[in-house]
Specification:
There is one protein chain. The chain has 359 residues and is of the alpha/beta class. The protein has two domains: 3-116, CBS-domain (Roll), CATH 3.10.580.10; 129-357, Spore Coat Polysaccharide Biosynthesis Protein SpsA, Chain A (Alpha-Beta Complex). The protein contains ten helices and 18 strands. The strands form six sheets. The protein has a seven-stranded mixed beta sheet, sandwiched between helices. Strands 1-2-3 form a three-stranded mixed beta sheet. The longest helix is centred in the C-terminal third of the chain and has 15 residues, at 343-357. Mean pLDDT is 88; it is low at 118-122.
Length: 359
């Protein structure tokens, strides 16, 4: 690994979760190495460790020491030269990265699983999943008026492709190729687009007789879906590994998993903090860290039975119904969420996705 790349993966013990999340997002290697001032490896942190920390109520400003692993696997420079042994070790342990340490325990290199692959990093996953992806594409998209008076929201262009093509491409890259659309508003436009383009996907659709909200249309799929499935709003593009989300969902044994994205809310005022009726302090324009619903979910098929057929229902109402009886988990991500549903975010998404495609 190049020295600059290795340096970007190193953090100190006083790094907080929020900064670690930012680092993981910037480096895209799914792991960070916690070192002391001399570079001695103290522990490792993966995106999964941070995810589990967040749902266990670890705060964004808490030190990574609370979640780092100190029982990491490592190799010496001599061992690192035995490529076949390293490959077998990575397969056996299911590791994607192994640090190389010198005699003083200082990290001097990292062996990546991709070093053993001929495929490009962004090629399609070798894993192929049968799980279906439901894309909710029946709404009017009124937040994008007057654009959506002409085109339905799912066909709004992001650079040279409509938004739903970006969504399908990302799922396909991660091994998912079965899509079902819920259609209503300007449905003939969408049907024509899906039918005329020769996509390498299995595409089907259902038609709502009336607008059924962000969850109501799922009732029409009761006889079409028998396994765990994704639901995605047609205005949400995520740069995350959906196979990892599915794995997380199964591990959590949840009825629904919501993909949530970290966001900072900047309060443009001085906030008064009280204690026993007295002012304790004034926080001037504080920043709050929150997890926002991205509009992408994994759902177990039996959840559909809780949706009244033919009646409008939004996803938050369905979640309120399920949360009283079943476990609902959250898969947190940092960045990589493009919300196309409003003009300000749409313009940002064009720039960001254009930069990503140019890499």
């Amino acid at each position: 690994m190049e020295k600059n790349k290795l340096k970007s993966l190193l953090i100190s013990t006083n790094t907080n979760l929020k900064l670690a999340m930012q680092k993981l997002n910037e480096t895209a290697e799914k792991i960070l190495f916690v070192v002391d001032e001399k570079g001695k490896l103290l522990g490792t942190i993966t995106d999964g460790d941070i995810r589990r920390g967040i749902i266990s109520n670890i705060k964004f400003n808490d030190s990574v020491e609370k979640i780092m692993h100190t029982d990491f696997t490592k190799v010496t420079p001599d061992e690192a030269r035995l490529k076949e042994d390293i490959r077998k070790l990575m397969v056996k342990k299911k590791f994607e990265q192994i640090p190389v340490l010198n005699n003083e325990g200082i990290i001097i290199d990292v062996i990546l699983w991709t070093d053993f692959l001929e495929e490009k990093k962004h090629s399609r996953s070798k894993n192929v999943f049968e799980n279906q992806v439901v894309i909710m594409a029946g709404g009017k998209g009124t937040r994008l008026d007057p654009f959506t008076k002409i085109l339905p929201k799912p066909l709004i262009p992001i650079n040279d492709k409509p938004v739903i093509e970006h969504i399908m491409e990302k799922f396909y890259q991660d091994g998912f190729s079965k899509f079902i659309y819920t259609l209503n508003y300007k449905k003939e436009y969408i049907k024509l687009f899906l039918a005329e383009n020769k996509f390498p996907y299995n595409i089907d659709w259902i038609e709502e007789k009336e607008l059924l909200g962000t969850a109501g249309g799922l009732a029409l799929l009761k006889d079409k879906i028998t396994d765990t499935f994704f639901v995605a709003n047609c205005d949400s593009i995520l740069e995350t590994d959906f196979s990892e989300v599915l794995k997380w969902h199964k591990e959590q044994k949840a009825a629904i998993t919501i993909i949530g994205c970290h966001n900072e809310v900047k309060i443009p005022f001085g906030v008064l903090e009280l204690s026993d009726g007295k002012l304790e302090k004034i926080s001037e324009k504080p920043v709050q860290d929150i997890i926002i619903n991205t509009g992408v979910y994994i759902i177990e098929p039996y959840v559909i039975s809780h949706i009244p057929p033919g009646k409008p229902m939004d996803m938050n109402k369905l979640i309120d119904c399920i949360i009283e009886k079943e476990k609902i988990s959250v898969f947190p991500i940092y960045g990589g969420w493009f919300d196309i549903g409003q003009w300000k975010e749409y313009k940002k998404s064009i720039e960001k996705l254009g930069d990503l495609e140019g890499v």
